[in-house]
Structures are given as C-alpha cells and as structure tokens.
Write a structure and sequence with these properties.
Layout (H helix, E strand, L loop, with lengths): L1 E5 L5 E5 L8 E6 L2 H11 L3 E8 L4 E7 L5 E6 L18 E5 L2 H10 L8 E2 L6 E6 L5 E6 L1
Parallel strand pairs: 3-6, 7-10
Antiparallel strand pairs: 1-2, 4-5, 5-6, 8-9, 9-10
C-alpha cells in the first residue's frame, strides 16, 4: 500500500508500506510421507484440505488446516537430504502451536507415544511451553496461550 509522508525538508513523499496479515502456511518436507501424514492428521489432528500427487515431480503435496485457517503443506520428494535441527543452526528453528490447555495436550501426545520435553516457563511472558518432534525430528512447540 502506498502512503504519503514528509521528508526532512517537509516535502511530501510517497512510501510503500507492506501489510502482512498473518502466516498463511509453513511447508514441511517429509522423509516418509505416509508416516508424517499419519502423524500430522491422526496424532496432531490437522484437517486435510487437499491432497495431490504430482507425477512429474514424484511428489505428494498435502494441505493441512488448523482451526484458525493457517495451514501446513506437507511434501514428499524422492530422497530428500536431511535438514539439521541440532545443534541449532541458522534458519527456521521450530514451528509453534498455541494450545489452551498444555497439560491436556501433553497427556494426549504421551498417550499416542510421542516423547515430549519437560514443561518450561517463558521467562518474559510467564507462559508454559514444551517441545516435541515430528517423525523427521523437526522441533515442534506447544505454547499455552
């Protein structure tokens, strides 16, 4: 969007201002599509929006929705290289999900055989959170909102 502003001399100038609204989706490449599909749909309960096989790329693209409309795109590719998550490296660090009841969500994950880290408290917000991992070791966070 273009907005009007004044420069140091008081002259009118036109300035572009981006208006990012929210994160629409995060994309994840799975090493084992079937295992990751089951994890995100059956364990985490994300809703399937669309699933397409792209023969020319030998790749699946699965669109998954969270209740607020944000999405995860889950991809498969033949023999994708591993991405380093630990030790921590530059780039996207983790994906965080807001939950209303951390204890109930942890109990559900544990009942489904998912290992979780001990619950911690954010020193700046006082909110509780924890981490777990998807089948490829991608760090996922639960943040009590």
């Amino acid at each position: 969007m273009r907005t009007a502003s004044k420069d140091e001399e008081g002259s009118s100038v036109s300035v572009w201002r981006m208006e990012l609204q929210r994160i629409h989706h995060a994309a994840i490449i799975a090493s084992d599509y079937a295992v990751s599909r089951a994890f995100y749909t059956e364990v985490l309960g994300l809703r399937v929006v669309a699933e397409n096989y792209r023969a020319e790329r030998e790749s699946y693209k699965l669109d998954l929705a969270l209740p607020d409309g944000s999405q995860i795109e889950l991809f498969s590719f033949p023999s994708p290289p591993a991405r380093v998550s630990r030790p921590e490296a530059c780039g996207l660090r983790h994906l965080a999900f807001a939950v209303a009841d951390l204890d109930a969500t942890l109990e559900e994950l544990l009942d489904r055989g998912v290992s979780v880290e001990p619950v911690r408290v954010d020193e700046y917000t006082g909110r509780r959170f924890t981490f777990f991992a998807d089948p490829d070791g991608l760090p996922l966070e639960l943040y009590e909102a």
